[in-house]
Known about the structure:
- The complex is a heterodimer.
- Chain A has one helix spanning about 5-25; strands at about 30, 35, 40-45, 50, 55-60, 65-70, 80, 85-90, 95-100, 105-115, 120-125.
- By secondary structure, chain A is an alpha/beta fold.
- In chain A, a hairpin with a 5-residue loop joins strand 2 (about 35) and strand 3.
- Chain B is α+β, with helices and mostly antiparallel strands.
- The radius of gyration of chain B is 37 Å and the shape is flat.
- Chain B starts with a strand and ends in an 8-residue tail after the last helix.
- Chains A and B meet through helix 1, strand 4, strand 7 and strand 8 of A and helix 4, strand 8, helix 7, helix 10 and helix 12 of B.
Amino acid sequence: MTPDKIIVTVLGLVFIAFIVWFFWMVKKAGVKATLSSSGYQELMVLVKGGYTPDVIVVEKGKPVRLNFVRSESASCSELLLIPDFNKSAKLPEGETVPVEFMPDKVGEFEFQCQMGMLRGKLIVE
Amino acid sequence: MTIHDPVCGMEINPKSAFATRQHMGRTFYLCSQSCAEKFDADPHRYASVVSSATTGIASDASGPVRIALPVGGLKKSGGPALEGALRALSGVSKVTANTKEGRVFVEYDPARVTVTDLLDAVRSAGFIADGQSMRLKISGIYCAECVVKIEDALKAVPGVLNATMNAATNEVKVEYSPVIGDLGQLTKAVESVGPYKAARAAEASEPEMDKEAQAMEKEYRSLMRKWWFGAAVGVPTMLLSYPWLFPVLRDWFPRGSSQLMYIWYGMGIASLAVLIYSGNQFFTGMWEGLKHRSANMHTLIAVGTGVAWLYSTIAMIFPQLFPSQEFTDVYYDVTVVVTALVVLGLAMELKAKGRTSEAIKKLIGLQAKTARVVRDGKEIDIAVEEVLVNDIVIVRPGEKIPVDGEVIEGQSAVDESMITGESLPVSKKIGDEVIGATINKTGAFKFRTTKVGKDTALSNIIRLVQDAQGSKVPIQKIVDRVSAYFTPSVMILAILGFVIWYDFGPSPALTYGLIVAVTTLIIACPCALGMATPMSLTTGIGLGAQNGILIRSGDALQAAEKLNAIILDKTGTITFGKPSLTDVVLAAGQNEADVLRLAASVEKSSEHPLALAIVEGAQARGVKLSNIETFDAIPGHGVSAKVEGRSILIGNLKLMNREGIALGDLEEKSKSLADNGKTPMYIALDDKAAGIIAVADTVKEDSKTAIAAMKKMGLEVVMITGDNERTANAIARQVGVDRVLAEVLPQDKAFNVQKLQLEGKRVAMVGDGINDAPALAQADIGMAIGTGTDVAIEASDITLIKGSLMGVVTAIQLSRATMRNVYQNLVGAFVYNSAGLPIALGVLYPFFGILLSPLLAALAMSFSSVTVIANANRLKSWKPVH
């Protein structure tokens, strides 16, 4: 093997290691929804290339209202799905869309766009 | 204490009020001469608005206020908990929860507790408190405080739950309980607190859909502009990247010449412009994704085109970095053409996607816009949103029925096909239920509204369909797990491909490595994988709704596909669930019209359900009933009566024996009727046996065909009933069911379902959802049949609005068709990716010398996601096969 091949191989492996670490190895911290005066656990979620925050922690048995604001025009993120709670919502660009549901089971659930390109996690405690 | 002047809304101290007025037993305080004059001119207008302690009523007038709050998620068992939670609030004097209507009635002291407190209590007890909402457009706002003033005025109207004003649009969103008296109060309330004018803002679902369509159209046009720009730059770029391939260009721009270098510099700039204008969504998408540590299609395209552009630019500006001239070719064509093609693919995808949700748009479009109601004795046309519960609505032939209700006057035939899928018009008479959005055909009638706004059958259907379309087919969960790893894996593959080609590939290794890496990034299509099931699901569930079949979720859809046994409840499912007259057997020398007329005339006075069947049967045969002279019910035996001067006995064998009436061969005929599952009754006229009238629960017309169709689909059909074996077998023979579970108590139905499941079968249970809820829940699929407007049955996975068993067949056919579509899409997407990726990586090269061009990869990628959507759209042409 010539030196340039060794360099390319090593660099390639480093890149791969970086991708594995960057996308899969880092655990994200969750954001807890706060109980507002309305009796809902409320949280604003920004939809732009992903969900911010994308790990949401809520308490079981208290109604949740997630206010989604989509600030991009790509049609992928237009539909929000929370399949485990049978909820879906159209998110028109720039509008705040409240999605309400009752977390009646404990566990980790996903929410995502229709194609599953953007995803977030909902942790019910 | 200060209070509001009812005319101008100013806060004044009652002691220093300019004038006081008495109206309808209440005291009003006015701030000035002009307000007093206005009040005197039309006291009722102002008095009717003010109704809380803060809007001008003297404090002594305030007492407990009664309000009805709509509560979501309220089941029978939840009633006491909810009542307790509300009673715990100080100031609440009386609470009654009505679980059936989903309402709670609260009597409270508005001085001590507010509606908001009540709603908070409802929510923290774990229920959903919401009402209807409307938007008012307010004009004449001149100050910042106006917002608060208007909101307060609206909140003071009894029945208003909340009011929030958007100062930017001058619109106020009012949430109100559906039991609010008159929506006119709201505008009056606003106008009473200042020089404002309030009017309903244009809203409702339709303009919203329009807005959505507009947004989609805008996005589509912008994508098309990007495509045309990319294509315009793409064609010359492609030609000039390889000028030595084309006869004339070869002479003009020889390889390595300075004029070619200038052209390439120009191309570098032009392709950068394409990346920035046409491809910006890929780069911003990638960046936003990276911030969330996630990768998607945008990442792949951005990295692919970006790498090609960077390599070309470096090669062009610093050719000395590369060992030989052959490395310094530019790949601007890849950058431009890939960007253009993928953008075109996105545009086509958008167009096709719009069609998958057509079903729901159609449903929303069904809603009536106006209603003609009787208010204060006058007929007025109002917007459908303003129709309230218990309004009297007038419907003329050809008109759309605006909301759900019960006919109170007149009769007609109604076309309910848009809701139930039943093509024949249904006749409606007094007491019958009418469904909003259906069309009145022949006669005019009046009905009392029972459900309005969000509670109507149509709204429920729309919500159910929307929620179901948002759910997932179980198989999708596996796909999801795969696609979470998909994109980074493709990036890893691309790097590996580059390294392997660089290390072991033929010369020029760098060029091959680069092409392989870029092609791999571009050909991978996470979109096709991600869209495979949601697209089919949306289409399939929408199709169901159009055929009167409401599928609750993707789980139900997948389970319905795999069924191999189906349990049908007898009463109300296979049969109509109520007795009707089936046979009239006559003794010698009797005449049918006479016997039937006399018997029916007697039974008119009886309250027995079998009696009703006889009366209805006689009327259906055009018999005119007479008035009876005497009537005597003999418990456990039957009745004896006198009609038209003749004495008549109707009853069982015991009655005939007691009266000593000779039956002759009638007794034999009676037995055979009973063997056929019918209930026979003897009739004696003037102490002589006259005949037998038999009633039975009759089988629905198409039950037999439906059951035959189920068997043809390979399902084992089982009938379950609480009836005795003899009756059950008689019905089973009629409709062609082989296996009968008779004499099953309602509470044992679930257990019997489980028994069948233990035989290793996937079982569907079909019932009316009334007393078989546990069985519906136990079955792999619970289907509630013929539920009419009460569509939100909790226990069922599939709800059939129409009463016919044919709906079950259609539902299973539909789920099979949908799941087939899902599998086609998944297999297609999987095969595409698992074949495309290795080819892109060059596995065919060592054997056939084939290496994929990145341009072909871009074409394939765009094509694959469009194919998936097109296949889902193909499902729309599905029709039930009967």
